[in-house]
Amino acid sequence: MRLYFIRHGKTQWNQEGRFQGAGGDSPLLTESYEQMVQVGRFLKGTPFTHAYASPIKRARVTAVHVVKELHQRVPLTLVSRLEEFHLGKMEGMAFEDVRTQFPAELDAFRNHPDQYDASKIGGETFTQVINRMTPAIQKIVAANNQSEDNVLIVSHGAALNAEINALLGTPLADLRKRGGLRNTSVTVLETSDGHHFDLIDWNDTRFLTATATPTDTI
Questions:
Q1: First-residue to last-residue Cα distance in the chain
Q2: What pLDDT, on the 0 to 100 scale, is given for residue 154?
């Protein structure tokens, strides 16, 4: 089966360069709705058995709009384990302010996941996020276990980046080495048992008409 992971549409805080975790949820930008249409039309030719999404509004709304464009009867289930990182004190902070107040945490979060210590900010580590997301992915695979099954999973940039790489067996220190995920990008994994995964496509955005900007990708 194949899992189509979609990062939610771009939000106000994304555009402003602010940390946006499970405790923050700024409005989706107007142009994000057009991008949701574009990803839905891009995937329209693929039959899906189910869609799953983080219950946080920016992901849930993205999922609803993408599923609508598929013109298929695809049930949508909200799964709390698909939420973004809990970011504690960094929530809502501008990246530059975090660089000033929590320089070590910011550097580790972006570049050295194995060294990220969330105790000072009161957030989740990469291992904690992976450990809560992986059982959800395995449950999704078990519920859609026919060889021709395809599922949509709409979640968040940092969490998806960590989880997808972990599913591929990437060492913790190397989780960021494939690069980031753009808003409304599609990443595809294939599995036959829910434990071993192959990468089919990473951060596919060829269907988006807008020119990418630095704040699109995390």
A1: 27
A2: 98
Mean pLDDT, rounded, of the chain: 96
The helix/strand/coil state of 150 is strand
Q: Which domain holds residue 168?
A: 8-187+197-216
d(CA 139, CA 156): 19
State how far the Cα of 166 lies from the Cα of 171, in Å rounded to an integer.
7
Residues of the chain with pLDDT under 50: none
Query: Is 205 a member of any domain?
Result: yes
CA distance 172 to 106: 16
Residues 35-91 have pLDDT tens digits of 999 999 999 999 999 999 999 999 999 999 999 999 999 999 999 999 999 999 999
pTM score: 0.97
Number of domains in the chain: 1
* Interior/surface letters 121-145, b for 16+ CB within 10 angstroms, e for the rest: bebbbbeebbebbbebbeebbeebe
Rounded distance between C-alpha atoms, residue 171 and residue 199, angstroms = 15
Does a structural domain hold residue 109? Answer: yes
Q: Is 77 a domain residue?
A: yes
Does residue 2 lie within any of the structural domains? Answer: no
Structure tokens at 16: 């402003």
Structure tokens at 17: 């360069």
| Contacts (Cβ under 8 Å, ≥6 apart) of 211 | none
CATH of residue 16's domain is: 3.40.50.1240
